[in-house]
């Protein structure tokens, strides 16, 4: 009797384990549900509003949105591809696109009829794979500009006009270096350009640090390498060789990180992605200015006690200002459970209707021109001038925009460049060492 | 019959009476035991199932995968010893191993000495359960939470640790952002979290040492210091050895604290082996190579455990 009871209990436990595992695989999906993942918590309300509009247009379909923080997002997405629990649709980043294309986990979206001309220039084209198929529908874009503490700038006698007319060069840093030197103050109150300035005991750095910048330097060195005429790879998209061995690149990087040695740029040791990113350095009064992306506008303007302004990136040796123009997209997973519904949702996300809704929340610049206009108007309503971010896209005469590098083996490039750039910034390793890293990267790409 | 069939040589120390009754008892036990077999198997089954499914099978599969090129989403391709050859020639792997060993030395060294001191103090100076409880509190916190809290406290610009240093007129220290400070800092964060637990294990070992030994030593005029070296240490050795084996294995597997505080940086200064394995597998989708490095870690840990076990005579006690 007792033996039978034990057998029955063990059997029940085993059955519950098996069914429990099976249930985990299909959680949250049904024929009428489209699962959608995004990482930016700020954008969640905007996409919830879009989902409402979509559900109204498509009765019977329901969108289930999951938001995860940036780091967890990619780990969980990877795990979901392996476990077969991937979302139907997810927000995709160019940095990861190459890898997902390699792994063949994305569904072609050619049938959605996405036209390049319907979006800001270059955004739609970036999401075409080497096989010629489209794997992403453009959703938004961002550029980089200089956020600065208006009070500190005013005290230093640097006007908004002056900050918008700065230029730089890798020899003496130009007026840009002079400005950030003047914004820098040591513990004795001496400014960076004054005699007796103590670079080892700096109270306020002219420029906040955003870390070493890995292989893209988006909000670190890319405004400078871009305006020096340097490009990441040999082709605009799906390049086959990287250019980290270029003399131009290495001289710019040396000058940029050299600003830290002069005491004007916060050193590598002051940066912490988790505890002290560039915006925190500005908000805490430890830095006067910081290069950062458009996705951070609401964070900077929302910081308590910080009167923030924005300025264009400085004019470089090419005579132009430069900024990376990066765009996100929505991708459908190859093994999506509700592929039909997923494609409908992506088409809606890429439509003017949804993008204008997202724009009205003033959290990001949507990819369609009307969506962008709606965002600009919404920012203006909040009293935020976003010209430092929008003009580079509209003004091709004075500005250069460039894309995030799109190549195969993106994860390997990151794995090699991440420590290599940290070595240059944190440990003062010679920039010429990047040539060796570049050879390793190109060897991988050559496989 | 039973008496005749019992060879005396097998029972040399037993009495004749004992020799007569033993085989009977043995046989009776065997007869009784026959009915327990299936039940015993049933009780063992859940643990055995867990062992087979979660330990043996993944280990064997991992060893197999270490001979393949595998990205998890397409079938593995057999590449023979390629991953191992790559590992031997990979400077980052050797650097990771070096960083890990450095971490283990600092972590285990400081942790063991501190835990031993705490355990002895708990045993010799106090009976307070509250105090014993307090010692254990950091262990109640998850590694990730502990890592994040320390990351904030030790931040170069904003951390309270550096505010205090500056308050004393000292320079700020980039605890987690400088290559020479990062590993010792992470090692000490984990000492802070685990020292109470380790102390409690050693404390349990100390409780097994009979008090009359200390009393006898006191009567003989031995000092606390002398008693520690002559009584506590020799009699605690087997427990200390087991604790050391367990903590060294755990220490080699450090991952979460590194992941939340430094992510392997700056410039691979804290790229411990587990973090490198994780990055290769889940960052670069090189599961074959990651498996090869995992097998290497398994071999290293097995060798260290074996050597530790033999050197410390963990299976033998000097007590009684």
TrEMBL record, chain A:
- GO terms assigned for molecular function: maltose binding
CDD domains documented for this protein? PBP2_TMBP_like (cd13585)
Transmembrane spans: none
UniProt keywords, alphabetically: Signal, Transport
Query: Which GO BP annotation is one of this protein's?
Result: maltodextrin transmembrane transport
Tell whether Transmembrane is among the UniProt keywords: no
Q: Which Gene3D superfamilies match?
A: Periplasmic binding protein-like II
Record flagged with keyword Transport: yes
Taken from the UniProt entry, a GO cellular component term is: ATP-binding cassette (ABC) transporter complex, substrate-binding subunit-containing
Q: Name one Pfam family in it.
A: SBP_bac_1
Q: From the UniProt annotation, give the residues forming the signal peptide.
A: 1-24
**Similarity remark:** Belongs to the bacterial solute-binding protein 1 family.
Q: This chain belongs to which protein, by name? A: Sugar ABC transporter substrate-binding protein
Give the species this sequence originates from: Streptomyces albiflavescens
TrEMBL record, chain B:
Q: Which GO terms describe its cellular component?
A: plasma membrane
Where do Low complexity bias regions lie? 1-15
Q: What are the residue boundaries of the ABC transmembrane type-1 domain, all occurrences included?
A: 97-308
TM spans (from-to): 39-60, 103-122, 134-153, 181-204, 235-255, 287-307
What name does the UniProt record give this protein? Sugar ABC transporter permease
Region spans: Disordered: 1-32
Question: One biological-process term from Gene Ontology?
Answer: transmembrane transport
Query: Would you identify the family this protein belongs to, as annotated?
Result: Belongs to the binding-protein-dependent transport system permease family.
Q: Where would you say this protein principally sits, based on its record? A: membrane
Q: Which domain of life is it from?
A: Bacteria
InterPro entries named in the record? ABC_transporter_permease (IPR051393), MetI-like (IPR000515), MetI-like_sf (IPR035906)
Native source species: Streptomyces albiflavescens
Keyword terms, alphabetized:
Cell membrane, Membrane, Transmembrane, Transmembrane helix, Transport
Q: How does it sit in the membrane?
A: Multi-pass membrane protein
Compartment(s) of residence: Cell membrane
């Amino acid at each position: 009797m007792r033996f039978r009871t034990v057998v029955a209990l063990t059997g029940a436990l085993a059955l519950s384990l098996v069914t429990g595992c099976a249930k985990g695989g299909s959680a949250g999906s049904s024929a009428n549900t489209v699962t959608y993942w995004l990482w930016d918590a700020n954008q969640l309300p905007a996409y919830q509003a879009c989902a409402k509009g979509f559900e109204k247009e498509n009765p019977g379909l329901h969108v289930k949105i999951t938001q995860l923080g940036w780091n967890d997002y990619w780990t969980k997405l990877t795990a979901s591809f392996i476990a077969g629990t991937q979302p139907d649709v997810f927000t995709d980043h160019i940095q990861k696109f190459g890898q997902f294309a390699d792994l063949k986990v994305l569904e072609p979206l050619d049938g959605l009829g996405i036209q390049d001309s319907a979006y800001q220039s270059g955004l739609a084209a970036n999401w075409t794979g080497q096989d010629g198929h489209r794997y992403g529908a453009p959703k938004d874009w961002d550029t980089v500009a200089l956020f600065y503490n208006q009070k500190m700038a005013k005290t230093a006698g640097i006007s908004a006009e002056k900050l918008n007319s700065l230029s730089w060069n890798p020899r003496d840093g130009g007026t840009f270096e002079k400005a950030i030197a003047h914004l820098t103050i040591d513990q004795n109150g001496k400014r960076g350009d004054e005699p007796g300035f103590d670079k080892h005991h700096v109270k306020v750095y002219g420029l906040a640090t955003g870390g070493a910048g890995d292989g893209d330097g988006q909000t670190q060195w890319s405004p400078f390498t871009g305006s020096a005429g340097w490009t990441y790879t040999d082709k605009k998209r799906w390049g086959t060789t990287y250019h980290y061995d270029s003399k131009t690149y290495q001289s710019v990087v040396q000058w940029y990180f050299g600003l830290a040695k002069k005491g004007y740029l916060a050193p590598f040791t002051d940066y912490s992605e988790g505890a002290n990113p560039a915006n925190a350095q500005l908000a805490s009064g430890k830095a006067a200015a910081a290069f950062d992306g458009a996705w951070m506008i609401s964070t900077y303007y929302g910081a308590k006690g910080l009167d923030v302004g924005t300025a264009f990136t400085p004019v470089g040796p090419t005579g132009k200002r430069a900024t990376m123009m990066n765009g996100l997209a929505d991708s459908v997973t190859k093994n999506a459970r509700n592929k039909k519904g997923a494609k409908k949702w992506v088409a809606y996300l890429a439509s003017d209707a949804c993008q204008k809704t997202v724009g009205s929340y003033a959290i990001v610049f949507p990819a369609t021109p009307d969506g962008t206009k709606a965002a600009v108007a919404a920012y203006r309503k909040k009293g935020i001038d976003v010209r430092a971010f929008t003009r580079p896209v509209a003004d091709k005469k004075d500005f250069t925009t460039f894309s995030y590098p799109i190549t195969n083996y993106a994860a390997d490039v990151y794995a090699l460049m991440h420590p290599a750039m940290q070595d240059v910034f944190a440990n003062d390793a010679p920039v010429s060492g990047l040539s060796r890293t570049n050879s390793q990267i190109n060897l991988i790409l050559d496989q | 019959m039973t008496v005749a069939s019992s060879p005396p040589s097998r029972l040399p120390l037993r009495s004749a009476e004992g020799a007569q009754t033993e085989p009977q008892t043995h046989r009776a036990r065997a007869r009784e035991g026959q009915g327990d077999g299936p039940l015993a198997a049933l009780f063992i089954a859940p643990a055995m199932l867990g062992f087979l499914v979660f330990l043996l099978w993944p280990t064997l599969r991992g060893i197999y995968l270490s001979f393949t090129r595998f990205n998890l989403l397409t079938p593995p391709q057999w590449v023979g010893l390629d991953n191992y050859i790559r590992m031997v020639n990979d400077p980052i792997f050797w650097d990771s191993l070096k960083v890990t060993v450095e971490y283990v030395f600092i972590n285990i060294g400081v942790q063991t000495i501190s835990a031993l001191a705490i355990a002895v103090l708990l045993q010799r100076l106090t009976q307070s359960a509250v105090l014993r409880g307090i010692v254990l509190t950091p262990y109640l916190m998850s590694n990730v939470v502990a890592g994040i809290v320390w990351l904030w406290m030790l931040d170069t610009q904003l951390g309270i640790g550096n505010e205090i240093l500056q308050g004393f007129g000292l320079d700020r220290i980039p605890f987690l952002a400088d290559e020479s400070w990062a590993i010792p800092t992470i090692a000490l964060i984990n000492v802070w979290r685990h020292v109470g637990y380790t102390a409690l294990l050693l404390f349990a070992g100390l409780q097994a040492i009979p008090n009359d030994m200390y009393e006898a030593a006191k009567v003989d005029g031995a000092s606390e210091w002398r008693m520690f070296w002559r009584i506590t240490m020799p009699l605690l050795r087997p427990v200390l050895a087991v604790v050391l084996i367990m903590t060294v294995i755990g220490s080699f597997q450090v991952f979460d604290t590194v992941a939340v505080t430094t992510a392997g940086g700056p410039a691979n200064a804290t790229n411990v082996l587990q973090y490198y394995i994780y990055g290769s597998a889940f960052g670069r989708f090189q599961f074959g190579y990651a498996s090869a490095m995992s097998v290497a870690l398994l071999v290293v840990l097995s060798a260290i455990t074996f050597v530790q076990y033999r050197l410390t005579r963990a299976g033998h006690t000097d007590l009684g």
